From TrEMBL:
<dbReference type="InterPro" id="IPR016142">
    <property type="entry name" value="Citrate_synth-like_lrg_a-sub"/>
</dbReference>
<dbReference type="Pfam" id="PF00285">
    <property type="entry name" value="Citrate_synt"/>
</dbReference>
<comment type="pathway">
    <text>Carbohydrate metabolism; tricarboxylic acid cycle; isocitrate from oxaloacetate: step 1/2.</text>
</comment>
<dbReference type="InterPro" id="IPR002020">
    <property type="entry name" value="Citrate_synthase"/>
</dbReference>
<protein>
    <recommendedName>
        <fullName>citrate synthase (unknown stereospecificity)</fullName>
        <ecNumber>2.3.3.16</ecNumber>
    </recommendedName>
</protein>
<dbReference type="InterPro" id="IPR016143">
    <property type="entry name" value="Citrate_synth-like_sm_a-sub"/>
</dbReference>
<dbReference type="InterPro" id="IPR036969">
    <property type="entry name" value="Citrate_synthase_sf"/>
</dbReference>
<comment type="similarity">
    <text>Belongs to the citrate synthase family.</text>
</comment>
<keyword id="KW-0808">Transferase</keyword>
Length: 440
């Protein structure tokens, strides 16, 4: 059905509450056209509009505008540009959570390195990322009790299960026990996120030492929970673990964070979003990078073998994990504060000395500076933490960023749904495939 108004044909439809509506000016600006062209799209049924109650103005359905823009951009040859942008390209999502720039990494305008080295707690940084305001004093989060008997989960896990794998198994169990997790208001979600973050920190050693879980959950901070769970005796461990957690808190649209946002855009609950992010984190090219650094240091074994191992890897064309970040051509600013901490607390540790020797060999060979992964492994070794602890620090710290992006994505309200550009098995472009299929 349509009706005439002011010489224009306008489509009529039943307005659904979930349809996001914009003004004519906003719609025309979004499409990059004049208002007259917008009205033409309406008359052709390409964009739906509804009258604004109490005025003579109309509102336009944003989903129709987005669909029309995608079609127009594809015809204009933008599909290839968009495809390339997904490979370390320009950001495709507006976000106020964090920024990577020439000055380094910032969380909502606050230097991540400054927050970490000044001793601000992970809890403070979490509140900053989730609300936009940095608390004047470090907040105190409530302690937790085990959500289920740790021995039950420990029986299901092989003793050699890594901490990240154990946490990946834990999150769905916590979800199943939380019947109010669906479509929760933001403040309830923040409270749920605080509880979940505390639970993750307390359960990191469940596969090896389930008896520590309850004590770890009663610790006053996330960092101190990790100290108890891993039973490290180093006096400065809470301070240094907190520094690493803060530096891991967020890093704009990395793989796991983008996964969390895509999942959040579907309307999934917080646990599902975090589970999806942890699945992405498990890949060797993301969170698994720490495990590959651990393997490298084990291969080197002694500081005096570092140069030979590095040169042999480079000769074979193999990667040396823990070096070179595409966003930081001059070096990852998160690495030095963590590596400095490792050298301060236990410079004589064998793995710390091996890591320093590998770093020296890479620098002499003219290769890029280290990433945060090398720093996390060095710190874990200096504190005497178990294998897999570096990747776990990354996961626990990064959960604060996942939550911030989940909340932001829900506020933005749109579904993240890229289009696919079909390519035939022989590599032919879609238009050529279609042309071959046409008869005379």
């Amino acid at each position: 059905m349509s009706r005439r108004k002011g010489g224009r044909s306008q489509s009529r439809f039943v307005h659904r509450p979930e349809d996001e509506l914009v003004t004519a000016v906003e719609a025309a600006t979004f499409l990059g056209v004049k208002r007259a062209t917008l009205y033409t799209y309406v008359s052709r049924g390409l964009v739906r509009c509804v009258p604004e109650p109490g005025s003579k103005e109309n509102r336009y359905v944003r989903a129709d505008l987005e669909r029309l823009k995608v079609r127009h951009d594809a015809r204009a040859g933008h599909a290839a540009v968009a495809s390339g942008a997904l490979r370390w390209g320009e950001p495709v999502i507006d976000s106020s959570v964090s920024q990577v720039g020439a000055e380094g990494l910032a969380y909502r305008g606050h230097s991540a390195v400054a927050l970490a080295t000044s001793g601000r707690s992970l809890e403070s940084v979490a509140e900053l990322l989730w609300s936009g305001a940095l608390p004047e004093e470090d907040p105190s989060w409530a302690s937790e009790e085990p959500a289920l008997p740790p021995s039950e989960l420990a029986r299901l896990l092989p003793r050699g299960t890594t901490p990240v794998a154990a946490l990946s198994a834990l999150v769905p169990l916590l979800a199943a026990r939380d019947v109010g997790r669906f479509a929760a208001p933001p403040e309830q979600e923040k409270a749920r996120a605080r509880r979940l973050l505390r639970q993750l920190a307390g359960w990191v050693s469940v596969a090896q030492a389930p008896g520590r879980v309850a004590r770890a959950l009663r610790a006053p901070t996330v960092a101190e929970s990790l100290v108890i769970a891993w039973d490290t005796k180093v006096k400065r461990a809470p301070e240094l673990l907190n520094r690493a957690l803060v530096l891991c808190a967020d890093h704009e649209l990395n793989v796991s964070t983008f996964t969390a946002r895509v999942t959040a855009s579907s309307g999934a609950d917080l646990y599902a979003c975090v589970s999806a992010a942890m699945a992405a984190l498990s890949g060797p090219r993301h969170g698994g990078a720490c495990d590959r650094v651990e393997a490298l240091l084990a291969e080197v074994g002694k500081p005096e073998r570092a140069t030979a191992v590095v040169h042999e890897r480079l000769r074979r064309g193999d990667a040396v994990p823990g070096f070179g970040h595409q966003l930081y051509p001059d070096g990852d600013p998160r690495s030095p504060p963590i590596m400095d901490a490792a050298r301060e607390v236990k410079p004589e540790a064998q793995s710390v000395r091996v890591a320093r020797a590998v770093l020296d060999a890479m620098r002499k060979a003219g290769h890029p500076e280290p990433t945060i992964d090398l720093g996390l492994v060095m710190l874990a070794e200096a504190l005497g933490l178990p294998p897999g602890a570096a990747a776990t620090l990354f996961a626990v710290g990064r959960m604060t960023g996942w939550v911030a992006h989940i909340l932001e994505q829900r506020e933005q309200g749109h579904l993240l749904r890229p289009r696919a550009r079909y390519v035939a098995p022989d590599g032919s472009a879609a238009d050529k495939v279609m042309a071959r299929g046409k008869g005379p």
